[in-house]
């Protein structure tokens, strides 16, 4: 049936049996027999004639949509096959929001390459809704976003909950208090992440909820740069807990200050992918292993 479906799509796209037969290098009677055979297998008419024009029936339109999707799937399969044949390698594209690019993505890519060294991994960055669109449009194979995604077309695998933490230079004046509270952020010199990401939106929502007006000295789109500037500017910052490592804090002479209200600022980091798309089996096993690794005991 695949051959007949391909010929059917050409007829639809050419809007003419004559033009389609020329494009296929096939006689018109032979093409008509192929279309008749397809209609017989489906048990329904695909076209109706309106004057000299061919017009799709409702079943014809459904068949065309399916045939186009099947053709695209076949082309993707041939591309994947060619990549495997070329030195046994395949390209796998991961979409990540700017925040997850700096927090979760490096560890996850390291785990994936350890399992499947034959994969050439590419990364695309964007806002969460842009990553979702990339997965839907199949311009990326897998997405890592700081959110739970409700989408019938996509599979969402929650990994872990993250929240904001207050990071300060050691011996910062705020530590003179016995137990810093959320209101201590009011008027506090701070370096914040640039606007536009879930992380900055979460930060601004927190400020609004508790009516805080910090003294924002800088806005930067690099966590590393923020950490390096805190001592110079004698400033504080709010960062996702998942980003911070003990060695990172020690290298920059920083400390994390626990504040209860910040622990309530939770977001879930998830893996998303198109459940209708064929996956490299090694990647699917990796997803299962990663999900099991983060699953609460």
UniProtKB/TrEMBL annotation:
Signal peptide: none annotated. CDD domains: PBP2_LTTR_substrate (cd05466). Residues 1-57 form the HTH lysR-type domain. It comes from the Bacteria. Keywords: DNA-binding, Transcription, Transcription regulation. PANTHER family: HTH-TYPE TRANSCRIPTIONAL REGULATOR YBHD, NITROGEN ASSIMILATION TRANSCRIPTIONAL ACTIVATOR-RELATED. Belongs to the LysR transcriptional regulatory family. This is LysR family transcriptional regulator. It comes from Paenibacillus artemisiicola.
């Amino acid at each position: 049936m695949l051959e007949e479906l391909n010929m059917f799509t050409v007829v639809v796209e050419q809007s003419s049996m004559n033009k389609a037969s020329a494009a296929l290098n096939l006689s018109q009677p032979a093409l008509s027999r192929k279309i008749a055979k397809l209609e017989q297998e489906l048990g329904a008419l695909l076209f109706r004639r309106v004057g000299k024009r061919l017009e799709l029936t409702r079943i014809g339109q459904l068949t065309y949509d399916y045939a186009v999707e099947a053709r695209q799937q076949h082309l993707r399969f041939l591309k994947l096959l060619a990549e495997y044949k070329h030195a046994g390698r395949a390209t796998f594209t991961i979409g990540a929001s700017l925040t997850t690019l700096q927090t979760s993505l490096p560890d996850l890519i390291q785990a994936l390459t350890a399992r499947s060294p034959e994969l050439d991994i590419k990364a695309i960055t964007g806002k969460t809704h842009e990553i979702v669109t990339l997965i839907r449009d199949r311009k990326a194979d897998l997405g890592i976003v700081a959110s739970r995604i409700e989408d019938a077309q996509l599979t969402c695998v929650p990994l872990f909950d993250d929240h904001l933490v207050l990071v300060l230079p050691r011996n910062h004046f705020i530590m003179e208090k016995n137990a810093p509270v959320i209101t201590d952020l009011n008027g506090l010199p701070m370096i914040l992440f640039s606007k536009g990401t879930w992380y900055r939106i979460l930060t601004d929502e927190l400020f609004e909820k508790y009516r805080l007006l910090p003294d924002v000295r800088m806005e930067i789109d690099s966590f590393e740069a923020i950490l390096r500037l805190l001592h110079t500017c004698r400033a504080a910052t709010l960062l996702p807990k998942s980003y911070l490592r003990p060695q990172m804090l020690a290298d920059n002479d920083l400390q994390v200050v626990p504040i209860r209200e910040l622990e309530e600022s939770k977001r879930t980091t998830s893996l998303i992918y198109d459940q209708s798309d064929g996956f490299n089996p090694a990647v699917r096993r990796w997803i299962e292993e990663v999900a099991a690794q983060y699953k609460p005991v």
